[in-house]
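Postdoc handover notes: sequence design on the structure in folder B. Input tokens:
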């Protein structure tokens, strides 16, 4: 059995951290741009985060990402900048991976939903928008 390396992460400040039960409801990808939308389970509020210059992304159930917890748990934030130990670290060490060769300064982010999570490798900074909805 392989030892799990724990992730080190820093929360990316958003307009509505620490409140709500955010569930990822939509993931849209179009030529190097990814938009992740999360809805609050108790209101009409939604958060939208856009990533530019996307190298790769994956959507996984939170239970399959044990190395990210507790560093990337919802009470600490919603969007996290992964400093070490995550998917980018795995790709950088994987034979045959070209992530570090072709794309320049790649960063990893994790969007943590209540059930699903989105890992993003990109060279741009995330842009987060908050919509309070009708309530």
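Designed sequence:
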């Amino acid at each position: 059995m392989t030892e799990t390396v724990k992730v080190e992460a820093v929360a990316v400040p958003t307009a509505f951290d620490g409140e709500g039960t955010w569930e990822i409801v939509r993931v849209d990808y179009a030529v190097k741009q990814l938009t992740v939308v999360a809805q609050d389970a108790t209101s009409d509020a939604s958060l939208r985060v856009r990533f530019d210059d996307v190298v790769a992304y994956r959507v996984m159930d939170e239970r399959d990402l044990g190395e990210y917890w507790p560093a990337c748990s919802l009470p600490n934030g919603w969007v996290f900048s992964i400093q070490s130990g995550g998917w980018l670290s795995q790709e950088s060490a994987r034979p045959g991976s070209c992530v570090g060769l072709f794309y320049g300064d790649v960063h990893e982010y994790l969007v943590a939903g209540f059930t699903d999570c989105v890992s993003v490798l990109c060279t741009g900074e995330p842009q987060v928008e908050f919509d309070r909805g009708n309530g």
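Context for whoever picks this up: The beta strands are 8-12, 22-30, 33-40, 46-52, 54-61, 79-84, 107-112, 116-122, 127-131. Don't rerun without checking with the PI first.
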